[in-house]
Write a structure and sequence with these properties.
single chain; mainly beta; five-stranded mixed beta barrel; five-stranded antiparallel beta sheet; 32% strand; globular
Amino acid sequence: MASNISLNQFAPNSIVAGLYVYMANLPQLHNVIVSNNQETALTAGSVVTIDTASTNIDAAVVKQAAVTDNIFGVVTFNPIQSQFVKGERVSVARENDVVWLPAAAAITAGAVLYFTAENQVTSTETPGNSIIGKALTPASAQGDFVQVQLGFATTEAGE
């Protein structure tokens, strides 16, 4: 679902991935750096993990998370910049924050959520995949936006 947002529109009137559901000024990490190992740009709604290969001692360094990685957070919506590349600063929503994320398929409110490689959320349990949180609202189809209360956990293959 594409969204056109003007650079002068700091209070979007449509739902976009990574947009906070409540309190636009909710505290978040602003001093996170996109890893030099990140080959593609991160966008709002990207699920990220700490880049353990980084030696930066001044700030957390993140890259796109694989579905089995430990989750660090979700890149938040930025009204000025839509993509973040190597070395750039990015804001990240953390545990217990509530953000909008796109659904990969229909989802029931209250469902435990996993994420896909496309940064969509799904309630389809896959052993070994990381849990991103809980659905606070339902989705009736792929592409619908869901309010997600972030809560990160890893699962074991075969669970």
